[in-house]
Amino acid sequence: MALRVAVIGSGPAGIYTAEALVKQSAEPVQVDVLERLPTPYGLVRYGVAPDHTSIKSIANYLRRVLELPEVRFLGGVTLGEHVSVDDLLGAYDAVVYCTGAMVDRKLGIPGEDLPGSVAATDFVNWYCGHPDVDPGRFTLDSPEVAVIGVGNVAVDVVRVLAKTADELRATDVPHDVLQRLSESQVKAIHMVGRRGPEHAKFTLKELRELGDLANADVCVRPDEAIVLGGDFPRQVQGNIKVLQSWAAREPVGRPRRLDVRFWLRPVEILGAERVEGLKLERTRLSQEGRVVGTGEFETLPVGMVLRSVGYQSVPLPGVPFSDKTMTVPNEAGRVRDREYVAGWLKRGPTGVIGTNKSDAAETVRTLLSDLEGRDRVAARPIDELLAERGIRPITYDEWLAIEAAEAELARSLGRGERVKLVGLEAMLRACRP
Ligand SMILES: Cc1cc2nc3c(=O)[nH]c(=O)nc-3n(C[C@H](O)[C@H](O)[C@H](O)COP(=O)(O)OP(=O)(O)OC[C@H]3O[C@@H](n4cnc5c(N)ncnc54)[C@H](O)[C@@H]3O)c2cc1C
Ligand SMILES: NC(=O)c1ccc[n+]([C@@H]2O[C@H](COP(=O)([O-])OP(=O)(O)OC[C@H]3O[C@@H](n4cnc5c(N)ncnc54)[C@H](OP(=O)(O)O)[C@@H]3O)[C@@H](O)[C@H]2O)c1
After folding, report:
1. Read out DSSP for 140-173?
2. Distance, CA 321 to ligand 1 centroid (Å)?
3. What are the residues whose beta carbons fall under 8 Å from the beta carbon of 158, sequence distance 6 or more?
4. Count of CB atoms within 10 A of residue 110's CB?
5. Residue 12 CA: which ligand 1 atom is closest?
6. Which one of 10, 50, 144, 148 is separated from 71 by 20 to 30 angstroms, measured CA to CA?
7. Ligand 2 in contact with 154 (CB < 6 A)?
8. Do 345 and 99 contact (CB within 8 A), yes or no?
């Protein structure tokens, strides 16, 4: 009898896990990939920026895994809502949790919950057309916006804010979102780092793209671009060089302006009914290397604050979770007997898509070595259980019908290859007419 494994989540970690199971297993294996959304690929579909089409094309690799005869996609099935851990352990020989990191980390400063203070997770979900966020959610009516954080997500958010709607027309951005972007009043974007250029988390390629924006001047203050010492990794040296070259150039009067700021930490988001400003404190590093305030403050007159300070995993019901690391405790991917973890849920929200491949391979090595020679579980098929509960999973072919409807929508609107359908209803209409 084949080894039956349930993979929970169809992002890169989930799909690389399915692939590694098929490739590494010496005996026949059957993998079900259970996904809460009707659509696969996780953040490749609902995170990677719409204008990064070459990165998005990783989906073409992932799709080949879902098309393997040993692998089955079951969309619209949520662990914790439709099925429990016990259900899964009764239906499969092993379970691998790959549910990523879905929520934002908090700043913990006053005013964080004011209208206009927005988590990057929500903003990214909005422009990516995630069904959790209404396309009418954001109106870009403030001339000045602050983005807190200097990681690659902050860079994505800044780029989407800085570009014109026309520049994003050929992407898969939902049509209602494109309309909102075309009405944007944003003139100035402030991207704020709490440490120096040498500590920024963005990568060189992504940083350079900001300097090529046709619609925005990029400005860096010469005093904030100064970096002491010089023994930095190549990536960091590259970042510093680019930022210092921007500090030496004058704005040329493009419609928007991006200020990349350093050594400033947010202390309060100001406003009575909604965001009216962002109070920042200048920082320095203490002798122990910690960020400390200098008591010198400045206020940015922004009407929107986008908090891009990292993602965070959420606990899955019935699965161990560490509130300290915000991950599932594991040893080389093993959580407990017959339970495993991979991807962002295993190691936290860092690394690029490819990092999940080696990560998943490690988990699968552990799983296969644990299960080698063990009796198979007297399983009750998951299909039976789902049918009993009135749940009809979205099949891979139904997902392909959603994709086809997105390509058709793009054609009818005279836009690129596809335009995202938004909302579960629209997706269900497309695949179950
Ligand atoms: C905004 C953003 C942009 C990025 N851009 C890039 C980029 O350009 N290049 C790059 O290399 N990396 C990029 N990354 C990083 C990359 O996306 C991650 O490394 C990768 O997606 C993590 O994979 P994962 O499978 O662990 O999580 P995810 O991709 O988040 O996949 C998790 C999946 O689990 C599903 N799920 C969640 N809960 C449940 C549940 N209870 N039951 C069933 N299913 C569930 C989710 O719907 C999702 O499909 C980006 C990350 C972000 C946040
Ligand atoms: N194109 C791409 O390849 C791409 C695109 C998007 C995302 N990704 C990847 O996805 C992962 C997540 O990216 P991310 O940008 O969300 O996270 P990240 O790389 O961890 O960056 C988070 C940023 O937030 C700052 N920050 C954290 N807490 C803060 C606080 N309390 N106040 C002020 N600033 C704070 C951090 O500063 P400190 O350093 O001082 O903590 C850092 O600048 C990364 O591995 C990233 O490379 C890749």
Report:
1. ---SEEEEE--SHHHHHHHHHHHS-TGGGTTS--
2. 18
3. 147, 189, 191, 210, 258
4. 12
5. 25
6. 50
7. yes
8. yes
Token duo for residue 228 = 């002491």
Q: Is residue 46 a contact partner of residue 125, using CB atoms and an 8 Å limit?
A: yes
Distance CA 341, CA 345 (A): 7
- Residue 303 · residue 270 · CB < 8 Å: no
pLDDT band for 158, please (50, 70, 90 cuts). Answer: very high
Q: Tell me: pLDDT of 246 over 90.
A: yes
In single-letter form, the type of residue at position 286 comes to: S
Mean per-residue pLDDT of the chain: 96
How close is the Cα of 155 to the center of ligand 2, in Å?
9
Query: Which positions ≥6 away from 137 have C-beta within 8 Å?
Result: 122, 126
For residue 379, pLDDT over 80 is answered with no
Computed from CA positions of residues 179, 182, 186, 192, in that sequence, does the dihedral angle turn out positive or negative?
positive
pLDDT in tens, 251-287: 999 999 999 999 999 999 999 999 999 999 999 999 9
For residue 84, name the pLDDT band (cuts at 50, 70, 90). Answer: very high
